[in-house]
Amino acid sequence: MSFGHKHILGIEQLSADDITLILDTAESFKEVSTREIKKVPTLRGKTIINIFFEASTRTRASFEIAGKRLSADTMNISASTSAVVKGETLEDTAKNLEAMHPDIIVMRHGHSGAPHYLAERCGFSVVNAGDGAHEHPSQALLDLMTIREKKGTIEGLVVAIVGDIAHSRVARSNIYALKKMGATVRLAGPGTLLPTEIERMGAEVTTDMNTALDGADVVMMLRIQQERQGKALLPSNREYSRFYGLNPENLKLAKADALVMHPGPMNRGVEISSAVADGAQNVILDQVENGVAVRMALLYLVSGGEQLAEQSA
């Protein structure tokens, strides 16, 4: 099967076959990170620019490592060091970057749709590293890779996503991805953090965390994104933790072999207790490890991976 996408703008545009191809490709790349020399020549001569208009540690480092392990030339630009602080528009920034002939732009932006805007106007491939509260496709794909790796399948599983659903691009991408792969998705959070009509995406929705946890195969906890809230939507972190924090007691409602996931950064003692975050069921660092493999797969596939393999054969 060939990959027919020049850009990775969201999970919504991908089919179940596309997702399977990405996960299979990521699995083949995962072994590279265990070698003594962690590098393959696959993207030698390609130029990748990581431009992040929002703070990021994991995603930015993961994309940079992924590019370097594929032997691409990579450079990083942050908003604080770009001409954006001098008033330059996003399109002008993109056009200037395009004049330097990059092959791929990996972009994170605070506004939903910013990567799509770029993809429509420029000739390079665009990979969305998170846009506003819209989508975070590479995070959802690494989550799926981790679930498939640990459970053997995604189809038929019950996945509970708990927390700040309203401001979470991770939740939105995961709903699309998990539904396409045949999982049941339950969403739980305070009413103020559940978007209206979110159930239209095909997820079960509840304000009772225990209902969401009951018999779940996977529990995915989300951080409260206070930086995206225009006004206080919760009485206090303490009260939130009481009703929506994951601890050893309420985790017992899920299946005994349930996976505990978190996209990071974690707020210990708020959405997750340290006992659970460091417990035997957590796969949080597996998610981080798989992130590099998934991002290698995305960079490879949008570069026309099959053609590159044929040229090097």
From TrEMBL:
EC number, as in UniProt: 2.1.3.2
Lineage: Bacteria, Pseudomonadati, Thermodesulfobacteriota, Desulfuromonadia, Desulfuromonadales
PROSITE patterns listed in its UniProt record: CARBAMOYLTRANSFERASE
One GO biological process term: 'de novo' UMP biosynthetic process
Organism superkingdom: Bacteria
Alphabetical list of NCBIfam families matching this protein: asp_carb_tr, PRK00856.1
Cellular component terms (Gene Ontology): cytosol
InterPro entries recorded: Asp/Orn_carbamoyltranf_P-bd, Asp/Orn_carbamoylTrfase, Asp/Orn_carbamoylTrfase_sf, Asp_carbamoyltransf, Asp_carbamoyltransf_Asp/Orn-bd
Species, as recorded: Syntrophotalea acetylenivorans
Binding of L-aspartate, residues: K86, R169, R223
Aspartate/ornithine carbamoyltransferase Asp/Orn-binding domain location: 156-301
Pathway annotation: Pyrimidine metabolism; UMP biosynthesis via de novo pathway; (S)-dihydroorotate from bicarbonate: step 2/3
Family assignment from sequence similarity: Belongs to the aspartate/ornithine carbamoyltransferase superfamily. ATCase family.
Catalytic activity: carbamoyl phosphate + L-aspartate = N-carbamoyl-L-aspartate + phosphate + H(+)
Protein name (database record): Aspartate carbamoyltransferase
UniProt-annotated binding residues for carbamoyl phosphate: R58, T59, R108, H136, Q139, G264, P265
Quaternary structure and interacting proteins, as annotated: Heterododecamer (2C3:3R2) of six catalytic PyrB chains organized as two trimers (C3), and six regulatory PyrI chains organized as three dimers (R2).
Molecular function via GO: amino acid binding; aspartate carbamoyltransferase activity
Start and end residues of each Aspartate/ornithine carbamoyltransferase carbamoyl-P binding domain: 6-149
Keyword annotations: Pyrimidine biosynthesis, Transferase
Function: Catalyzes the condensation of carbamoyl phosphate and aspartate to form carbamoyl aspartate and inorganic phosphate, the committed step in the de novo pyrimidine nucleotide biosynthesis pathway.
